[in-house]
Specification:
The chain has about 625 residues and is an alpha+beta fold. About 30% of the residues lie in helices and about 15% in strands. Helix 1 runs antiparallel to helix 2 and helix 14 (about 380-390) packs antiparallel against helix 16 (about 430-440).
Amino acid sequence: MLALALLPATGARRHKRPACRSSSLRAALLLLAGFGIGPAVQAADEALPAPKVLRYAFRIAETGFDPAKVQDIYSRTITPHIFESLLTYDHLARPARIKPLTAAALPEVSADFKIWTLRIQPGIYFADDPAFKGQRRELTAADYVYSFKRFADPATNSPAWDSLEENHLLGLNEYRAELARSKQAFDYERRIEGLQALDRYTLQIKLGRSRPRFDQLLADASLFGAVAREVVEAYPQRSMEHPVGTGPFRLASWRRSSLIVLERNPDYRERFYDAQPRVDDGEGQALLTRFKGRRIPMLDRVEISIIEENQPRWLSFLNGQFDLIDRVPEDFINQAMPGGRLAPGLAKRGIQGYRVLTSDVLFTVFNTEDPVIGGNQPERVALRRAMALGTDSEREIRIVRRGQAIVAQSILMPHTTGYDPQFKSEGGDYDPVRARALLDLFGYIDRDGDGFREQPDGSPLRLESLSTPESFQRQIDQIWQKAMAQIGLRIEFKTAKWPENLKAMRAGKFQIWSLASSAAAPDGQDALGLFYSPRIGGSNYARFKLPLMDQLYEQANGLPDGPERAAVFAEAKRVAAAYAPYRARGHRLLTDLAQPRLIGYRRPPFWLNWWEYVDIETEKAPH
């Protein structure tokens, strides 16, 4: 997901504190070499351990590294390694378990789930930056107050504002609405009742509505990690390229859409590997035994290349250039994991294979504000439902994805609340006969004999989908284009880089797009957010408005988990299938491969930070 032209690398700077003990030793010996002690340098270099560097590739480019501004999963993989949230997830616990990160303990929560109080650990510091003017900058409760306020600032234009907005932090929504009327600048000194630093280390959040699962939002470091006000204000308009946080890594260099390099944060506090896997979790218990008590992070550097085409990314891994191939390309899955088992040749090399059903969904989104396919009039709903019925998801999965997905019946994702593997709906059907009958019934017929239908009023029916230029996407597009042609609909594609398409979608300047979404938490509420009208411009990509769906969303958000909430989710899925602002196509089976030198890898089900939990055995690294 995202970036444009190559620009000079930013964020690479020298710090007053040495990056590690070995670098300071080398510097001292180099100084001694000036006094005729050159051999000491060579001997020291030979004795120093090789740096531990994790290398792998993203398949889509990043957009930037400001938590309040990013939306794509690739940028959001970087941000939680630089910034830290109050809470986090136990890396080995299955099912997911929340634990403190910068907080000293889990939140104190009122009985009605409206008041959340957290105390921050003293002695946590931001990475060094010139904005701090030579001072060590400690993390305080005020930093989280500032960071949360940034989401509400219209100047930030945060795509994730809706995540906070619907939780109704007292006074914050009202202040944002006031600014929309007055057009004044956001006043960060203004007191917000629902967002208070009670003292240097105590944060209190007051919500206008009961939110039993608010701790899951507080555990999302990809969005809600603390930023320092001095840094944001020191680099106006450059927050996406100048991230400074309290996390285990810091940005060392960046070539947009090409290479992202992070290095160990020398100011990172003492933090040690600890987790609570299930007793019967053999893999988790083995990892805990191996790493418990190790100081984290164990890596010195992480280098992320951007390789959009599948073949060079696959070959780079086979040649040992990368330690991990995250999501083996579907067109090479039979070489990697034939029949779901690691290929013998790879096993002989010590390569490790991991295959999981992920908490994500592949879907087609229809812009319900578009004058051709949008709206809730019967004929527009019929057109979207016909396109949904004419979509051959099974063929896409079998031919292009090489079986690496299961057909989706709804937008709800596996392993999340609300997902039911037994649920069946029209939203998952492939039935071109019914699709053609539906189009005929509502007046979408071929009047000029060219094989393609016109609109009910006889005007041309022009359908255009956004797309990206890589060959894998072209194969998917071709299958969908042929499927639409079978029901008499002509689809054309507007091809652009992912960042450009993302901007168009956020602005509502598109008609159709096919993409994927991944769950960031074990609760399925965010999936319902794709239909929630206050999230238009954010995660309601279809720009869908339906009072009934808003009501169901709010009802589910305030209920505790249980049968009543499950019934609300089931009703929401039925309504979603009836109005068809999205066509869920599949849930992916992802396969990751790791070189034998990468130790401790385990794909997180929801959270995106994992680099601090892995190690590199440098003696196994290629030379």
